[in-house]
Amino acid sequence: MADRTQRSTVGSSQREQQRMNQPYVNRFEPDQLWSSRAAAFRGELKPYVGYMAQSGFPGVMMLMLILATVGYAALVRDLPAHFPVTLFGVALVIGFTCWSPLRTWLQPADTVFLLPRELEMHQYLRRSFRYTGIPTLIGVWFSLLAYWPMYEHGEGTANAAVLLLALAALKAGNIAGAWQERRTAEPGARRFLRFLRWVLTGVTLAALFRLEPWKAILFGLLAAALMAVIYRLPRKHALPWETLIREEIRTRRRYYRFLALFIDVPTQAPRIARRSYAAWIGRAIKFAQRETYVYLYTMTLLRTELGGMLIRLTLLGMLVLYWLGDAAWLDGWGSTIVFVLVAGIIGLQLGSLRHSHKYAVWGHLYPLPAQRRIDSLATVDRMAYIVCTLLMWLPGGIALAVHGNPLQALAAPAAALLYGMLRRPSVVRRKALKDDEED
Amino acid sequence: MNQDTKHADRTGHGPALEVTDLIGGYSPRRPVLHNLTFDVRPGEIVGLIGLNGAGKSTAIKHILGLMQPHAGEVKVNGAKLDADPQRYRGSIAYVPESPVLFDELTVDEHLRLTGMAYGVEASAFDGRLEQLLDEFHMRPKRGAFAEHLSKGMKQKVMIMNALMADPPLFIIDEPFLGLDPLGIRSLLDRLVEVKKAGAAVLMSSHILSTVETYCDRYIVLHHGRIAAQGKLRDVLQAAGMTSGTLDEAFFRLVSETAGGGGMSDGR
């Protein structure tokens, strides 16, 4: 901005000085705006992070990391003969390589106030690219470090320096690709491009971990050239304001959803998924006045991110418990331990359903008894808890029973059923009532 | 479940809404509403008009029971809120000034939820749903979420929900904002219909020509007081006029320099 101060008279330079001292008056300072927004977000989260730190969550994470390390070390020491070393490496490294988030701090109001400055936004965005690019690159290198002990057992011939450089290049390519996808106007094209990028990156990683380096690098370059051509095809925005604003909202929501596990946080509008395959559940609820809130909470559970999380947890639990049950780990009691753990997480997540519709104006206007909402909440919660935990148990339980461990097969679901039927509803009711009183 | 109100009846006798000496506002030390007394009878549409900040929305919140009166009382269909909350609530359908929708429900599902909440008969529900979708040209959007509806469409969903509940009293706050011309016409046609069927409607709006055409009586609110109420000639009289439009009378009543502002009960 120095070129602007080339005024001769003393008066005008004073005015200029005054103007420089006032932020954002007649002056667009992308760097300053970016920094103040980043600081505002940090300040916004600060009070909640303390609660998270006190909750014992970091300790649990630490413990799980240590356990995973010990398990991994044992796995590497006695690697089974046909272990898919390359596939494991791809799975380990692809996340940080492809996932290229972008914190822009853009807000809906920016389409009014910053839009006229679109041409000057490069500097602003450069900060964003640096802010998210560097940590994910470090993540890539860390996952490579984690993979290294196993890589040495594989057929790969590349040395560490080549891999570090190749992965950095791959990461850079993915950041550039993700940006082109954000600019793409049509959601369908955007999804297709992202899918293609993940697939080609995955294949390139597999080549790097398995083939001679020059072959892998040649393949990577060809893939990059192909993507560069394809990225030119769709209609694109110069700066995808709406996509970036949506992404920002999603990211904030994710932060708050995480923090909501520990402490009450300001509610963000939920992200909605249609999940047509589950639509029959809503239709199955009887059309009757007393079922009003059962219907509402069921739809909330099915359509919000909470439902997505429960579905993923249940599927993951099914898979892990099947493996453990099939291996009859710790005489079959190992799967019981893991079941209790995952069922606990499901219960914890499900507990956040009570924060929905707490403040909905319709709750005051519907001609329904006030207690009805909380009763229905407990009903939906109980149903969801039992369905998720029993489904999760089913494959592993069958495996255990087949291997002749009927007691181990039945103990966990029986406990979940008892807890879900008898204890959990009153806990949910009590918490919901307490919330109401506090407000 | 005997605590459930089955679809509140239109009694036919007595006012659907009766507000008596209502004093209200957010802080007891600074009331916004001063001694409001008015009623809305079955089979009439009453227009609530006033400048921004005159107290229209505050008055509506008191009627809905979202705010507690400092003094005075509100009866809906003969019931007071604390004495018979189910009857009171079951007698009102409310269309808010800015649409309030559930993010996770589609248009169809909003109507289903309202139908359940107000105890609409399952047999009557489907017919009403299809009719409303056609009337408000929302059939192509029936599976859409709130996020994908325009402001006007959201407003239509609110209106359709109120009509689905089909109670004795409709409270409609600024319904025309964002509504397209077809939507406005459908709404007005339906209001005339429910009025003929014996429902009462309290509607606040700034579109005075529409209010003049469709309302049977008017309440002019100014600085939280009733500046005039009654039929057109009563409002004209309160404004010191013998002939003219509601618009002219309103303008005289609310301009401080004009001779308006006198209390009048022209019923």
TrEMBL record, chain A:
**Top-rank taxon:** Bacteria
Q: Which UniProt keywords apply?
A: Membrane, Transmembrane, Transmembrane helix
**Residue ranges of the region described as Disordered:** 1-22
Give me the stretches of Polar residues compositional bias: 7-22
InterPro entries in UniProt:
EcsB_ABC
Instruction: Spell out the GO cellular component terms annotated for this protein, sorted alphabetically and separated by semicolons.
Output: membrane
Q: Which residues cross the membrane?
A: 56-75, 81-99, 129-148, 160-180, 192-210, 216-233, 330-350, 383-401
> Does Transmembrane helix count among this protein's keywords?
yes
Query: Is the keyword Transmembrane helix in the record?
Result: yes
- UniProt-recorded name of the protein: ABC-2 type transport system permease protein
UniProtKB/TrEMBL annotation, chain B:
Q: Where is the composition biased (Basic and acidic residues)?
A: 1-12
Under InterPro entries, the record lists:
AAA+_ATPase, ABC_transporter-like_ATP-bd, ABC_Transporter_VariousFunc, P-loop_NTPase
According to the UniProt record, where is the region Disordered? 1-21
Which PROSITE patterns does the entry link to? ABC_TRANSPORTER_2 (PS50893)
User: Transmembrane stretches, by residue range?
Assistant: none
Gene3D superfamilies, per this entry? P-loop containing nucleotide triphosphate hydrolases (3.40.50.300)
| SMART domains found in the cross-reference section | AAA
- What Gene Ontology molecular-function terms does this entry list? ATP binding; ATP hydrolysis activity
The ABC transporter domain sits at: 17-248
Q: What keywords appear on the UniProt entry?
A: ATP-binding, Nucleotide-binding, Transport
Q: What is this protein called?
A: ABC-2 type transport system ATP-binding protein
Organism field:
Paenibacillus cellulosilyticus
Which taxonomic lineage is given here?
Bacteria, Bacillati, Bacillota, Bacilli, Bacillales
